[in-house]
Amino acid sequence: MGTFEEIWNIVRQIPPGRVATYGQIARMTGRPRGARLVGWAMASCPDGSGVPCHRVVDRSGGTKRAFDAHMPHGQRFLLEAEGVLFREDGTVDMDRCQWRPE
Description:
Blueprint (H helix, E strand, L loop, with lengths): L2 H9 L8 E2 H7 L6 H9 L12 E2 L16 H8 L12 H4 L5
Parallel strand pairs: 1-2
């Protein structure tokens, strides 16, 4: 299985209402310093693939502007629609919403 496919398969497991960080996904693939690779995989994800790329955030719970090209604050909008909580500073409440697979 290719690297991007491996990353996409992990991201598909993130349930609605939860988020994971780029670094967290990288560690799950056995690449602890591969957060940037995860970012590239998210940016390269084909439309209609079923990969919930919006559920991947930076280590501080920050969203990415890449989603804004389609709609302003698009990533936040999608996450809030799933019940993800945001703090006053505009970042995801990671204590309450970070995915922790068993």
